[in-house]
Amino acid sequence: MAVVLRVLKTLRNHWKKTVFFSGVSVWGVTYIKGKYEEEGIRREFCERARKYGTRPLYEGQKLRRVTVFLNPVANQRDSRKLFEKNAEPILHLAGLEVSVVKTEFEGQAKLYMDVIGDTDAIVVAGGDGTLLEVVTGLLRRKDQDVAAQIPIGVLPVGKTNSFVRSLFEDHKSNVRWICNAAMSIVEGVTKPMDVMYIKGEGDKTAYAVTGLQWGTFRDAEIKKKKYWYFGPLKHKCTYLIKTMTDWPPTIKAKLTYTNPCDGCSKCYQHPPEQKPTWSWWQFFMPQRQVTPSLPTQDFSKVVNEECGVEYSRDVSATEVTVLTRLARKSKDCKGLEITLGSAEISKTDFIKEGWRRSTMEQPHSGDKNDDKFEFLQVGEFKLVPEVAEGEESWFTIDSEQYEAMPIEVKLLKDKVKVFCQQ
Q1: Chain centroid to CA 115: how far?
Q2: Alpha-carbon distance 152 to 419, whole Å?
Q3: Cα dihedral 111, 116, 122, 123 sign
Q4: What is the pLDDT of residues 71-110, one digit of tens each?
Q5: More confident residue, 126 or 366
Q6: Cα Rg for the chain, rounded, in angstroms?
């Protein structure tokens, strides 16, 4: 009893040291526990992958070839460590033939897409920007219909991973999130994905998989990096400063659009005929007869008088947002859905909405129950921004910044295939 009293007295007399070392001890225990749980997750997925790797190959069957495009500077240079520690072991244990290409400059992955060919899958180890480069490079090719058949896997090792959040919702643990994405590549389950074709002035084109944003809220999110000296309050201070330096927050543009069409004699295009591939060993084996897939409906007999009819209007709003169906998590939208934020917004509402968005991980698509937003469903559209001389205005396309200019946007439904969970 006397020993206990002496210990308690010592702790009381040195209470500052007691509080400090108690805090350090709690942090240390939490850190070790977290590392132990992460190792358990890695072990779990490696065991699952090993079962695929120990399966025997049939005669003439080759290993699946996977080409990984790794952006080593993404996520403040942590992407390489995250890939090598969490995803790469799973791919190797599953028996995949893995080739890793480390990009050295912006746009390099886009250039590689012109020459890539002998691979069964493309894996993007980076953020939204690296994925944008890969998809744009693939679909800029002359044989884009053939190139689009190569399935794409995405590993969330970048700083912004908006697209992957739509595919894998379980991202509370970063390690489990990456392992889930890597395991989806091993399992080989794919789903079709819409792509937005964006054409600017001249030969400037991009293929977005998440969407496009333009307006005041987008500008505020970009500028908050300049207010780093406010620390954890920079998100809130950004919108306060915005109301004092740049008000009213209105953007103007000319919008020309067509209504969405499910398919008719005017717009339906027959899928390109795919030539059968041939290998030398098929000379000794009977070829499998492939039945070409036919459309379930004869669109040549469908008449839609509204298809292709253009409508025009002037836009005055706080923001313009266009997201794909996957980013919106909506299957009801037939085409593209444009969200227009009302130009009539008070400073108080602007600050509240900005603070609310600062905690969101996904791009904001508007609340349909909120009368501050207007929604337009369109087939394709043209947007001509009105930017005063000497002013700068920028689009955000899949988390990448592009100078605002007149653009044409079309939706390419089910254009590419991506790996997803079973």
Answers
A1: 24
A2: 6
A3: negative
A4: 998 888 889 999 999 999 999 999 999 999 999 888 888 8
A5: 126
A6: 26
Confirm if 234 and 222 have CB atoms less than 8 A apart: no
Residues of 239-255 as b/e, b for ≥16 C-beta within 10 angstroms? bbbbbeeeeebebebeb
Q: What share of the chain is helix, strand, coil (3-state, %, to 5)?
A: 40, 25, 35
**CA pair distance 140, 152, nearest whole angstrom:** 16
Q: How confident is the model at residue 332 (pLDDT cuts 50, 70, 90)?
A: low
3/137 Cα distance (integer angstroms): 73
DSSP, residue by residue, 248-310: S--EEEEEEEE---S--TTT--PPPPPPPP--GGGGSSPPPP-PPP--SS-GGG---TTTT-E
Element (H, E) at 150: none
Return d(Cα 26, Cα 21) in angstroms, integer: 9
Return d(Cα 48, Cα 237) in angstroms, integer. Answer: 47
Positive or negative, the CA dihedral 12, 13, 16, 20 is negative
State the CB neighbour count (10 A cutoff) for residue 373. 19
Please name which of 80, 45, 90 lies closest in space to residue 157, comparing C-alpha atoms: 80
Residue 182's contacts (CB-CB under 8 Å, 6 or more residues apart) are 45, 49, 86, 87, 90, 91, 153, 155
Task: Please name the residues in contact with 263: beta carbons below 8 A apart, sequence gap of 6 or more.
Answer: 297, 299, 302
What count of Cα atoms within 13 Å lies in the side-chain half-sphere of residue 395?
21
Structure-token match 């700083």, residue found: 159
At 241, give phi and psi (nearest 5°). -65, -35
Measured distance CA(271)–CA(149) in Å, rounded: 13
Q: What is the pLDDT of residue 220?
A: 82
* Alpha carbon of residue 230 to chain centroid: 29
The tokens of 169 are what?
Answer: 């919702």
DSSP states of 183-210 as a string? HHHHHT-EEEEEEEEEE-STT-EEEESS
Q: Please, what is the average pLDDT of the chain?
A: 82
Q: Which two tokens stand for residue 294?
A: 């036919």
**Within 293-408, where are the H helices?**
325-328, 347-357
Cα separation, 100 vs 155, whole angstroms: 13
